[in-house]
Amino acid sequence: MNKEKALNLMSSICSKKEYCEFDIRKKLKKYSLLENEIIDIINFLKKNKFLDENRFANAYVRDKCKFNNWGKFKISTMLGSKHVPESIIAKALENISDKEYADICLRVLIIKSRSLKEPDKLLKKNKLISFAMGKGFSYDIIKIQLSRLESNL
Question: Which of 18, 28, 82, 130 is the S-S candidate for 56 at Cβ 3.0 to 4.6 Å?
């Protein structure tokens, strides 16, 4: 694929969905373009607002919280794996209100609690903690939300 076709394709896909530079760079490398061509395409996409790391990070945080019920640690780790700068990740995570975040954690714990058939309350609690930590929530927020849920365990 030549540079012009690749630019048109990337412009098209970036106008439909948010992407980060890392993902676009990966796509462009599949087309056997030269590194300077890839840089030119990425610069064009950024200059013309097709590609914006801040916008991508905000959309990613919003979607992963709302649809995947992920905690901040997992979101941060995944954005980091896409080479999104720490400052942008931190700013995007600030958009999650404390109440919303607590509610997401509580919802995760309630749903998982219903599926556990563990009769021992301590083992059940440990499994819930482990599950929520795997979803990216900190132990502190899990502990607070478990205390709200504890009467139902």
Answer: 18
Which long-range contacts link 23-28 to residues 24+ away (Cβ below 8 Å)?
Answer: 23/82, 24/51
Please tell me what DSSP assigns to residue 50: S
Whether the CB-CB separation of 30 and 13 falls below 8 Å is answered with no
Give the residue extent of every domain in the chain.
Answer: 3-47, 53-93, 98-152
| The token pair that represents 62 in the structure block | 């919003």
User: Which residues have a Cβ under 8 Å from the Cβ of 85 and sit 6 or more positions away?
Assistant: 53
| This prediction's pTM | 0.88
Place of tokens 């109440």: 99
pLDDT tens, position by position, 9-59? 999 999 999 999 999 999 999 998 999 999 999 999 999 999 999 999 999
Asked if 105 contacts 132 with a C-beta cutoff of 8 angstroms, the reply is yes
